[in-house]
Amino acid sequence: MFKKLHLKLTLNITIVLVVLVAIYSFIVYGFIYRGNKNPAQLILREAVSHVSDLNEIPDYPPKPKRFPKNNHKTVNIFNLKFNKDLHYVLRNTDLTITATTLDEVFDDDSLKKYALKVLKTKGSLTITTEINEESVRMITAYINKNGIEGIAQVFYNRDAEIFFMTRLMTTFITIGLLSIIVLVIISWYLAKKALEPIKKSWQQQKDFVADASHELRTPLTVIQTNLEVLESCENETIADNKQWLDNAYAETRVMSKLIDDLLLLAKIDAKQVALEQKEFNISKIAVEVSAQMYPLFKKKSIVFTTSIVDSINFNGDETRIKQLIIVLLENALKYTQEEGKVSLTLEKKDNKVIILVEDNGIGIAHEDKERIFDRFYRADKARFREEGGTGLGLSIASWITSLYDGAIRVESEIGKGSKFHVELKIYRK
């Protein structure tokens, strides 16, 4: 699926980039073309303005001796005045040629029709046409000054201009073709980078569904097995089968917690978790949670100690902060052996609340440290299953920490225990 999507996205990006390059090329080409045409027209008009006598060619610029065939050696499209040979055809009002720079025979009929048109309007006309099969840019203008009335036609050979623009177009096409190859490679890379978060999200979703199905299947299997045992003991009382009922009940509690965690994570992903922002005494919350957890630690003969600074106020969601502390303590309870030690520390440092949960349990391997906050990840699956865990607690704890621009990290060593360090920023109302 992603391979086809990658190809499709590459094609779309390539098309967009090619279109942008083509638009840019046309704009540049048009700019250069207009940069050639507009100054040329100004020069032609200036040349007409130098005509003061219909019988005399003005010295602007110096007259060539013959109709030019441009050898393309000198082209400066932004300085036509010094690199274009201008040619004059001067006429009186009956359109008879009175003076010209062209010594060779040329087709006057093609020029005369423009002169006639301008004579009627007594204006000017700038066009691109052909004279003796040569492309020229020409201005035909009505002259009426110093008692002189007639028509002046001034033009230049466009061979060099055409040569330059053709070479420019060829260069653009060549660069364009090479650019397509480069753009395909760039598009492939950009498409790959764009798909990475989608692929990651898709894989996480697949893993989440697979892990959730597995986690739900296990307690269901246990419940089903215990109920099948009960079915086979038709003549026994409930008291005789209390062990099987207790097993089934314990698994329903595991399922209930798992489903609650799954629903919370689903809401987190959909950004639909409602958070209550209020100021509360986080020290009091830590004391309450410690009191709730104390019997569980005592049942496992674990020494549980606390160091809680009084009256630390925190602005946030009281329920989620309580859940964060519970997750950290439950995690320590699961991975600490009997007669071990667990401590909870709550203090304030600058504008941060610091929560430390330390134990001398089994510890976490170095390769597992980065993954323990992933959903359903367990460093010790067998022990976790015995303790009734879901593998979602630390993932939820990480999310709660992120709500307050905080950080959660772990220091651990196999056989020596773990220390979870949480920092939460304090925001004032």
Outline of this structure?
The protein has 429 residues and is an alpha+beta fold.
Straight-line N-to-C gap = 49 Å
CATH class of the largest domain: Alpha Beta
CATH architecture of the largest domain: 2-Layer Sandwich
Q: In what order do the strands lie side by side in the largest sheet?
A: 2-1-5-4-3
Would you identify the regions where 5 or more consecutive residues have pLDDT less than 50?
62-68, 70-83
Strand and helix order: HHEEHEEEHHEHEEHEEHHEE
Number of helices: 9
Helix coverage percent of residues? Answer: 40-55%
Structural class: alpha+beta
Radius of gyration: 45 Å
CATH superfamily of the largest domain, by name, is PAS domain
| Fraction in beta strands | 15-25%
Shape: rod-shaped
Account of the protein in words:
Helix content is 51%, strand content 20%. With 429 residues, it is of the alpha+beta class. It folds into two domains: 2-66 and 74-166, Beta-Lactamase, CATH 3.30.450; 278-425, 2-Layer Sandwich (Heat Shock Protein 90), CATH 3.30.565. The strands form three sheets. The protein has a five-stranded antiparallel beta sheet, sandwiched between helices. Strands 7-9-10-12-11 form a five-stranded mixed beta sheet, with helices on one face. A two-stranded antiparallel sheet has the order 6-8. Helix 1 runs antiparallel to helix 4 (159-232), helix 6 runs parallel beside helix 7 (318-334) and helix 7 (318-334) runs antiparallel to helix 9 (393-402).
